[in-house]
Amino acid sequence: MTLFGLLSVWFLMFGFVQSKLSLEDGLLSKADVKNLFQRLDALEESLEVEKQRNNELENTVNILKSNLENTKQTFEDKYAALEKQFLKRLDEERKSCKRVAEKTQKKKTYQNDWQRKLTTDSSVLSKHQRNHKFQREQKRLLVQPSQVPPMTVAFYAQMSTSIPEPEATGNHVMVFDIVRTNDGNGYHPSTGVFIVPESGIYVFSWSFRNADNHYHSTQLMVNSNEGGEIQVRTANASSITGTGIAVLHVNKGDDVYVKIATVGHLGPIFSDNFGRSSFTGWKLN
């Protein structure tokens, strides 16, 4: 109950007592007494409304608290999954480096052994024999160097939630935060940007979904230059997914991302269980 309500009750009760005394003295009429009772009933109704408002506020606080706990748990789950994926990739890279180092060391040891053997034999052989033996040994040592496999670069990511209409504006960078593939570790789900790890020819493709008389144009960007653009326009009670594809030569360190065009956009961009917006790319070896 508010301070105003308490004061109102006090004044009303005080007035009621005074009215009763006045009535006994013959100073108040029955109409005045009836009016006082009506005011008391109105005050009781006001207090009941205040009580209902307090209950509604308490329910709202409980709902907000529950939503905050759910959001916190979702964030912790995503963080744990990303950490696990990073540690797994780090372990794979460490094992790969170890295998390459062991292979290089074995090859170096083999060549050193043969070199020492040739030096020892040459001290007891004639010039002709040394030349002949050297030629034969050289042929044996002419082993074709092993081919280093080209670096595999490929990524595929989806958007976990839709972009609401207030955010789906010009130059808004679309962040695809669900990573399905990220060989080469070039894609960054926190920003939606693919940083090229190795120069070459790449294939890029992106898609997004519109519905219900909405339309959008999206652009594939390489740094600040456009690499491709598509527009999707839908009719009433319909849903359409548009897909763009581009084959581009990009250099190591370039930023490749998808953004909403500065013009030609209306409504949200959808990404849910009925169809997810996505971004993918891979290097042609």
Task: Please describe the structure with a list of short key phrases separated by commas or semicolons.
five-stranded antiparallel sheet; Jelly Rolls; alpha+beta; 2 domains; 285 residues; signal
How large, in whole angstroms, is the Cα Rg? 39 Å
The CATH architecture category of the largest domain equals Sandwich
- According to CATH, the fold-level topology of the largest domain is Jelly Rolls
Q: Helix proportion of residues, in percent?
A: 40-55%
Low-confidence stretches: none
Number of helices: 3
Averaging pLDDT over every residue, what do you get? 84
GO cellular component, one term: extracellular region
Domain C1q: 148-285
Signal peptide: 1-19
Coiled coil: 33-107
Describe the protein.
This protein has 285 residues and is of the alpha+beta class. It has 2 domains: 1-107; 154-283, Jelly Rolls. The chain has 3 helices and 10 strands, in the order αααββββββββββ. The strands form 2 sheets. Strands 2-1-10-5-8 form a 5-stranded antiparallel beta sheet, with no helix packed on it. Strands 3-4-9-6-7 form a 5-stranded antiparallel beta sheet, with no helix packed on it. A hairpin with a 2-residue loop joins strand 6 and strand 7 (225-233). Helix 1 runs antiparallel to helix 2 (30-122). The model has no long low-confidence stretch (mean pLDDT 84).
Explain briefly what this protein structure is.
By secondary structure, the protein is of the alpha+beta class. The chain is built from three helices and ten strands. The longest helix has 93 residues, at 30-122.
